[in-house]
């Protein structure tokens, strides 16, 4: 069971939950079938409920609290900014907005030195697609089937996972293709080299049949997040870069989830030596303390709008409170070696620990990841690789596994037949090992559903 926290107040928790159920409409949910946990507080890698139960946050909420909960430097920066200048329209030059843009531009790959601020990741993707279409004068955008890019109009159509289906108009100018995923290869590849070569050939064929001159952009998550944390094989992203250059297609990397230390680098693109034309970010830029996202823009695309107005904007673009939290987050990450900690924890603790779990548990089909960005593919049968639950389906097996995690004080990130191991970048070695021990017990429950 989870360790009790001294601030237990069940009556207060019941009141919070009652108010939630009376008035809050939750995303991605059948409202009458959910039972949200009433949260009393959080700190670092932990949060707790009103019954006094503590949970190790192996989800980083929605893979966004990279710097952990309630980091004192970020909290102080928000408080100080609120006392000085709470909000100001985006058309003005504001010191903290400029500083946030400078710090981000210093860390993005290559020469992506102009920053357009949004309120979150979906809006970043929306604006990146708009920029690409206006820059090229072309209508179509290509994205991968195993992907998630957000829930707004263009972003949800770019998304490949089943959340797209109810909103897919089939008229958004989006064409999907298969990106590499060796464990479930659509190309019948036997190794990473074959998977890379065949995935690039498939992309070339898709472009040829769609018409290169009709395609504005290819949008890829550098390392896909919610869709399964499939690290691309060596050579794939540089290969996409070359294809885009050859056909005049804008290359957009979505780093909303993978950016700002999550993979053990400031941006996941740094692992692969590739520079996109546009890079979207959000989440880890300030750990979601105040909503913030954006697009990092290449000089060539930025120049398109030197004399031509960019037809897009948001009332809260570059909001001072959000930018102050970003400045504090980025500075704290640099000063405290948080990106390096994510890399070390991944290499020395999570990677070896998860592979050891895979050896003990027949329900684990594959372990994959970087930094503090990992996924376990849970299967009924290792030989056939049959998922523990079918694609786009829930099921008793994953429900039981999730309940076992929570019973042992671990809050997991579960999607379809996978559990993702995505704690804050600040997690300590001791905490990571505690999480692995809880995961070990929960996987025993999953093993009971194997063939």
Question: How would you summarize this macromolecular structure in one to three sentences?
Answer:
With about 450 residues, the protein is α/β, with parallel strands linked by helices.
Outline the structure in words:
There is one protein chain. The chain is of the alpha/beta class. Helix content is 38%, strand content 17%. It has 13 helices and 16 strands. It has helices spanning 10-23, 60-63, 72-84, 95-107, 121-136, 153-158, 192-210, 236-247, 299-304, 320-335, 338-360, 396-407, 429-447; strands at 39-43, 46-49, 54-57, 114-118, 140-144, 174-177, 215-221, 250-254, 278-281, 293-297, 364-370, 373-381, 386-387, 410-411, 413-415, 418-421. A seven-stranded mixed beta sheet has the order 4-10-9-8-7-5-6, sandwiched between helices. Strands 11, 12, 13, 15 and 16 form a five-stranded antiparallel beta sheet that branches. A hairpin with a 4-residue loop joins β12 and β13 (386-387). The longest helix is centred in the C-terminal third of the chain and has 23 residues, at 338-360. The radius of gyration is 22 Å and the shape is globular. The model has no long low-confidence stretch (mean pLDDT 96).
The separation of the N and C termini measures 28 Å
Shape category: globular
Largest sheet: 7 strands, mixed
Instruction: Compute the number of helices.
Output: 13
Helix-strand makeup class: alpha/beta
- Measured as a percent range, the helix fraction is 25-40%
Q: Tell me the strand percentage band.
A: 15-25%
The average pLDDT score comes to 96
What value does the Rg take, in angstroms?
Answer: 22 Å
The string of secondary-structure elements, in order, is HEEEHHHEHEHEHEHEEEHHHEEEHEEEH
If strands are numbered along the chain, what order do they take across the biggest sheet? Answer: 4-10-9-8-7-5-6
Unreliably modeled segments: none
Q: Total strand count, please?
A: 16
């Amino acid at each position: 069971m989870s360790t009790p926290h001294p601030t237990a107040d069940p009556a207060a928790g019941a009141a919070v939950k009652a108010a939630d159920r009376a008035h809050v409409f939750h995303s991605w949910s059948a409202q009458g079938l959910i039972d949200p946990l009433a949260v009393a507080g959080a700190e670092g890698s932990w949060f707790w409920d009103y019954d006094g139960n503590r949970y190790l946050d192996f989800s980083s909420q929605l893979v966004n609290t990279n710097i952990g909960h309630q980091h004192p430097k970020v909290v102080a920066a928000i408080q100080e900014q609120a006392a000085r200048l709470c909000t100001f329209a985006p058309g003005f030059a504001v010191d903290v907005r400029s500083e946030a843009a400078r710090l981000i531009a210093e860390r993005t790959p290559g020469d992506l030195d102009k920053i357009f601020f949004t309120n979150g990741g979906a809006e970043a993707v929306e604006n990146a697609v708009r920029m690409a279409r206006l820059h090229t004068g072309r209508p179509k955008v290509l994205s991968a089937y195993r992907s998630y890019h957000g829930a707004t109009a263009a972003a949800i159509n770019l998304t490949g996972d089943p959340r797209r289906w109810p909103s897919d108009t089939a008229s958004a100018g989006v064409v999907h293709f298969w990106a590499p995923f060796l464990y479930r290869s659509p190309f019948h590849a036997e190794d990473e080299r074959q998977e890379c070569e065949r995935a690039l050939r498939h992309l070339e064929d898709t472009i040829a049949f769609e018409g290169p001159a009709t395609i504005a952009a290819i949008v890829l998550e550098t390392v896909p997040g919610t869709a399964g944390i499939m690290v691309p094989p060596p050579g794939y992203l540089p290969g996409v870069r070359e294809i885009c250059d050859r056909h005049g297609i804008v290359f957009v990397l979505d780093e909303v989830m993978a950016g700002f230390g999550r993979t053990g680098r400031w941006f996941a693109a740094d692992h692969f030596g590739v520079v996109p034309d546009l890079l979207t970010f959000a989440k880890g830029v300030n750990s979601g303390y105040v909503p913030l996202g954006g697009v990092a823009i290449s000089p060539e695309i930025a120049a398109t709008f030197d004399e031509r107005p960019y037809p897009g904007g948001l009332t809260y673009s570059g909001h001072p409170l959000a930018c102050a939290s970003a400045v504090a987050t980025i500075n704290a990450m640099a000063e405290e070696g948080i990106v390096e900690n994510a890399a070390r924890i991944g290499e020395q603790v999570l990677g070896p620990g998860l592979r050891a779990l895979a050896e003990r548990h027949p329900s684990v089909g594959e372990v994959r990841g970087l930094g503090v960005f990992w996924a376990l593919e849970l299967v009924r049968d290792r030989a056939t690789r049959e998922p523990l639950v079918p694609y786009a389906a829930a099921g008793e097996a994953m429900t039981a596994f999730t309940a076992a995690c929570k019973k042992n004080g671990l809050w997991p990130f579960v999607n379809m037949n996978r559990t993702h191991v995505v704690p804050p970048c600040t997690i300590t070695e001791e905490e990571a090992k505690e999480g692995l021990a809880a995961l070990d017990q929960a996987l025993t429950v999953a093993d009971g559903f194997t063939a």
